[in-house]
């Protein structure tokens, strides 16, 4: 039996693979950029007016002469005729300055008479109210670096420089195998001795929460051969999550089935509650997480361990840890790290009741998992404890 | 021109509608429950063994007599034959206790000889190692209340009591209308005077981030009639987001088009930077957000205002606010609330550079928006400022 910290360390050590995927821009939302993105264009792609006003040549102006307004340039239009000295053009926000102009005066800062204007703007200088070509990004320059998390604003930015696909660290493929003779599917009437299968649904929802979906869900009986077949069929996945049958009872057949499938055990049993019988192994590049069947243990192991491995693929940290003060005293026995369901408020974090590993009511209302360290017994109200947000 | 706080207040006041949607359980992930969920069954649905061990009748035991082990009950099996006094059954975790038994002794706490066992467990009492029928949820009792955010653990819990659909506060329908003669689509070569359209893509990504998608995207020229037609066509949506053309220039045609479409203005112009020309109006139950066309202003208005209205439909708070200390001094002019892109660290929050509203580089790297209050000018390093996480 190893401590929680050792279990996490060994999982990370065994995550060797990741994959770079070229995704359409919108599908790359919330992924991490795998290769630097270089701008294919200057942005703005031309000297652009930042205001509704008049464009003119500041260089050829004596600071007082009036201008003749010759034409109008709307955003989206382009005028190739160069301005003559003391010629100005009516221009609008976003429009390209015509050749021979370098400065824009705001429409509020002119005096207009007939087809002429004079400038009444003591602040105006060369380049006023002009967004210079390439001032945001220059063609060929790095627009976003490797390792940058792509947010909606980042996507907007890349779209604006004409990028429509991007290389990101992609998702691992995940297979779920649920074991248990007692499991029946929702929608069927409950019969004596049976319970509704919920672990595949909880795990699917948790994967969905971070943008993943299982590529397969297999529900098998407590039968070693059936379990072994199910495992073997999924060994092409990046990860397999198995629930149930991982303890040491007569019908805990998963460890034996894993061994017969050629899976190499990395560890079995962790000093934690819930989820003590948690098993982790590998088969070539495939990571196998075998979790005890109790629903609360399944969800806890997902948030503490499986997510850690997924983050090694996607180069992301999910469900960040924080420290908050406890709102109540809390006591446990020494020897196991306890993960308890918590609820955060402005006062700190409160341990929710009903913590038995088969009870999920409190988990359903929790917004975080609180970690109470292995060797300690008493935690005092007001003391800062480590927690992981899970919403 | 109204302050930020007044704009937010008026938006919330004009959000009257929401809809209750019956969704399959997995699709209800991260929605808020609209009607209390009652348990259709007891859980556990029978008295269930919590251990691998032996079930017997504690009531009929003298505390020392041996038991005869008559049969075995695996999880998923059921035995209808009532136990005789001093008869025990081999039982496994999750299995149903047979009639006439009330207690389980762990397999580690017995002495076995032939077909008999004696119990060696000083702690054992009536009901030990048994999860009583209905001890988690009772048939007909409330399993989760209205207003509960549905998490993966909540979904696992509901699946476990046999629930497979749930009534939640559903998503509003959102239409996007982007205006601007200068806009061209990604994939086309950039031509003189044109820029790539990115606002519909940034808004779509931001909607995706919270599980929504636009039901339509319309890109229209700076033409009042075209804009009016586009608006009229989308008035069946719960929300319309328009970008561009909302200021007061000759080609800012959106306010006039809105008026001709029968939209009632609630406000136009907010004391903020970026996004000063922001317009909000209604048409029957439809909410119309007309945002200035600068990409950074679009994203800022989305995270500060549009999201607020979406949350009125889904009964959720998105992108929560926090306070963190500034890592640098910051100075602005009084008169407008400034929203600046920030990056959080263990030291606090840092204002990212390049804040002009047409620049999105810094937004692409930001993880939060910092709010600098309207009336203030100087913000000191170490001072706590309000921010909204946007990742």
- End-to-end Cα distance of chain A, whole Å, is 30 Å
- Most extensive chain contact? A-B, 92 and 92 residues
Provide the structure class of chain A. Answer: alpha+beta
Strand count, sense and barrel status of the largest sheet of chain A are: 6 strands, mixed
Question: What fraction of the residues of chain A are assigned to beta strands by DSSP?
Answer: 25-35%
**CATH topology-level name of the largest domain in chain A:** Molybdenum Cofactor Biosythetic Enzyme, Chain A
> How many E strands of chain A?
28
Number of helices of chain A: 7
Average of per-residue pLDDT values of chain A: 94
Tell me the name of the CATH class of the largest domain in chain A: Alpha Beta
Nearest-angstrom radius of gyration of chain A?
A: 31 Å
Question: What would you call the quaternary organization?
Answer: homodimer
Number of domains of chain A: 4
CATH superfamily assignment of the largest domain in chain A?
A: MoaB/Mog-like domain
Q: What is the strand arrangement across the widest sheet of chain A? A: 7-4-6-5-9-8
General shape of chain A: elongated
């Amino acid at each position: 039996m190893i401590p929680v910290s050792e279990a996490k360390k060994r999982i990370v050590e065994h995550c060797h693979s990741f994959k770079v995927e070229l995704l359409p821009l919108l599908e790359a939302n919330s992924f991490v950029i795998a290769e630097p993105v270089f701008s294919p264009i200057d942005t703005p792609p031309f000297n652009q007016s930042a205001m509704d006003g008049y464009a003119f040549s500041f260089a050829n102006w004596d600071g007082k002469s009036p201008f003749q307004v010759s034409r109008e340039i709307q955003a989206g239009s382009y005028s190739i005729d160069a301005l003559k000295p003391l010629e100005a053009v009516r221009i609008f926000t976003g429009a390209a300055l015509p050749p021979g102009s370098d400065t824009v005066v705001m429409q509020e800062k002119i005096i207009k008479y007939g087809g002429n204007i004079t400038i009444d703007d003591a602040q105006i200088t060369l380049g006023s109210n002009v967004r210079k070509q390439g001032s945001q990004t220059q063609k060929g320059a790095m627009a976003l670096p490797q390792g940058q998390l792509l947010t909606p604003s980042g996507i907007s930015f890349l779209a604006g420089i004409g990028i429509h696909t991007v290389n990101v660290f992609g998702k691992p493929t995940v297979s779920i195998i649920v074991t248990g003779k007692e499991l029946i599917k929702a929608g069927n009437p409950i019969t004596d001795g049976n319970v509704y299968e919920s672990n595949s649904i909880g795990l699917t929802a948790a994967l969905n929460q971070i943008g993943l979906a299982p590529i397969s869900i297999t529900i098998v009986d407590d039968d070693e051969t059936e379990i072994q077949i199910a495992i073997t069929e999924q060994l092409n996945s990046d990860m397999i999550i198995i629930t149930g049958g991982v303890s040491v009872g007569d019908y805990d057949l998963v460890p034996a089935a894993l061994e017969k499938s050629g899976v190499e055990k990395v560890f079995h049993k962790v000093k934690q509650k819930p989820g003590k019988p948690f098993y982790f192994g590998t088969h070539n590049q495939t990571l196998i997480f075998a979790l005890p069947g109790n629903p609360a243990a399944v969800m806890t192991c997902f948030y503490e361990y499986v997510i850690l491995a997924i983050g090694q693929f996607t180069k992301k940290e999910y469900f960040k840890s924080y420290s908050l003060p406890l709102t109540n005293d809390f006591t446990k026995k020494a020897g196991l790290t306890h993960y308890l369901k918590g609820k955060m408020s402005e006062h700190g974090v409160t341990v929710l009741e009903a913590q038995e590993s088969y009870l999920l009511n409190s988990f359903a209302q929790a917004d975080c998992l609180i970690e109470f360290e292995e060797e300690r017994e008493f935690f005092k109200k007001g003391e800062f404890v480590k927690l992981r947000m899970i919403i």
